[in-house]
Specification:
27% of the residues lie in helices and 17% in strands. By secondary structure, the protein is of the alpha/beta class. The longest helix is centred in the middle third of the chain and has 31 residues, at 236-266. 49% of the residues are buried.
């Protein structure tokens, strides 16, 4: 068996023509894949954002109930390791996702037999420019993305993008080029997995100028392609410019996907190679006058994501869609199943291979969220966001043996409050550190409890069939009771920390 897993970051389901996207972004190669593959119409996120989602992809279980952004833990069983042990399956990662090389992601790429890292995305610590031309930057870039202070992510980004002289220089193009070289070198071999993973179309929405030609706007100011999270505060022309730059970046991604599909055609990989394509989460592009993720509720634009699966044994079913409720945690057991390997008992995801033959029910409800914010659940129709009555009311801890945040170690002040906690049912009998999540924690104010927009931290229920934009909360005690019961059942299945039931007033649910 051979598998190619293509992972984009921040790929909006609503922007894809294959999902009926109304944004008029031409995506011919996503359409081309959709004609070959199975399209999953009710696929949802799990743990958010980027790195927590990738931990789910590797381990097949939620982690946001116990942990914020952090490394693969010593007790985690990753599909790459399991494949290697069970049948010697070789795994290779090509990626430009710079978060793997920061404190909070440092144990991910090393789970693969080999990996290649393309430099230059977003705030990658790449180009060393001691004295940049700050005045030139002020003329060329919008003030919201123009911060020349040492240590600023915007300064790193502007230093990096100075190195991009042609379309071939962009990290997404170089990442796919490395993936194609792996296929050229190994397409005759068997028993391998190739993960082609790119940070695009994540912000900044930076693409070669020729990709913008089909998306004109009335904006006439300096470069604006790096949105600030939260309530926009922008005028309509600025918002249109940002959306146009997202469209250009997605167009560039579509172009790279086409190169991969060309290779599948040229090498006839369709006969014996599976192809999976998905993302970690979506993004708010001005809906409800909100931008981004993390500090806002996990609306459908963020939570409801695309998934395509092609398998040579089901090639005749290309173009079909499935309505089963699926999640990110299902990718791990699906990949294991493709190689005939059973998942460990702690895996909470389900293999999706049976759905390729016939649609069916995988789960009644899907849980999702990020550490320190709401716990969210959907049954595919209703979505329910449950917030603590007091988001700063405590009963929130991090459980880990790898005390690092996204871009820093846990602080000494945090660690002074650490205690040893008995094992959870997924830690292989290993006790873990319990560290209170408070204002002392860097993540608390970055995208934890302290970063949430207060006006939006309200428990709400939506009917997404009647209200797909989630603009009108409803009151339905019976639906809420049912979803709360499902929420508690899933939390128990994941051995959620006991204090969360108190934090979310679920003690009697």
């Amino acid at each position: 068996m051979r598998v190619v897993f293509v992972l984009f970051d921040t790929l909006s389901r609503r922007a894809l023509e294959a999902y009926g996207g109304a944004s008029a972004i031409p995506t011919p190669n996503f359409n081309r894949l959709a004609r070959r593959a199975m399209r999953f119409d009710r696929h949802y996120v799990g743990s958010l954002p980027c790195i927590p989602a990738r931990r789910e992809m590797l381990t097949g279980r939620h982690n946001f109930l116990h942990r914020s952004w952090g490394p693969v833990e010593p007790f985690d069983k990753c599909f790459t390791d399991l494949l290697a042990k069970a049948g010697g399956t070789y795994s290779h990662l090509v990626t430009d996702h710079c978060h793997y090389w920061e404190d909070g992601g440092a144990t991910y790429h090393t789970r693969y037999n080999s990996f290649e890292f393309v430099r230059g995305q977003e705030n990658d610590f790449w180009q060393g420019v001691v004295e940049p031309d700050l005045e030139d930057w002020k003329r060329r870039y919008h003030p919201i993305q123009n911060d020349g202070r040492p240590g600023s992510k915007f300064r790193r980004n502007l230093s990096n993008r100075e190195m991009l002289q042609s379309a071939a220089d962009y990290p997404v193009a170089r990442t796919f080029e490395l993936g194609l070289k792996f296929l050229e070198r190994n397409h005759a071999a068997d028993n391998w997995l190739l993960q082609i993973e790119t940070f695009d179309p994540h912000e900044p929405f930076e693409a070669p100028p020729e990709m913008r030609e089909g998306f004109p706007t009335n904006y006439s100011g300096p470069v604006l392609d790096y949105p600030a999270y939260g309530v926009s505060g922008m005028n309509p022309d600025e918002a249109s410019e940002l959306r146009a730059n997202y469209a250009a970046t997605l167009t560039h991604c579509d172009r790279q996907l086409g190169r991969l599909l060309d290779a599948f055609d040229a090498q006839n990989l369709w006969k014996d190679t599976a192809l999976i394509l998905s993302t970690d989460h979506g993004f708010l592009l001005g809906e409800r006058d909100l931008w981004g993720k993390l500090i806002v509720p996990v609306y459908q634009e963020i939570a409801h994501i695309p998934l395509f699966i092609y398998h040579p044994d089901h090639a005749s079913r290309g173009g079909e869609a499935r309505q089963a409720l699926t999640q990110t945690i299902d990718l791990m057991p699906t990949i294991l199943d493709m190689f005939g390997v059973a998942p460990p008992s702690e895996v909470q995801g389900h293999s999706l291979l049976p759905l390729l033959a016939r649609d069916g029910e995988v789960r009644r409800a899907a849980l999702y969220g990020q550490h320190g914010s709401a716990i969210n659940i959907t049954d595919g129709r209703y979505t329910y966001f449950r917030y603590p009555r007091d988001i700063h009311g405590g009963h929130l801890n991090q459980y880990t043996l790898m005390p690092t945040h996204i871009m820093s170690l846990f602080g000494v002040e945090e660690l002074r409050e650490a205690e040893l906690h008995p094992p959870f049912d997924f830690t292989q009998g290993v006790p873990v550190l319990r560290i209170p999540s408070t204002e002392k924690s860097a993540v608390y104010v970055r995208h934890g409890a302290g970063a949430q927009l207060p006006a939006l931290t309200k428990t709400v229920l939506y009917d997404t069939e009647a209200d797909p934009g989630q603009e009108h909360p409803i009151g339905d005690a019976e639906v809420e009771r049912r979803l709360v019961a499902e929420m508690v059942a899933i939390m128990r299945a994941h051995d959620a920390p006991q204090e969360l039931y108190q934090r979310f007033h679920l003690e009697n649910a």
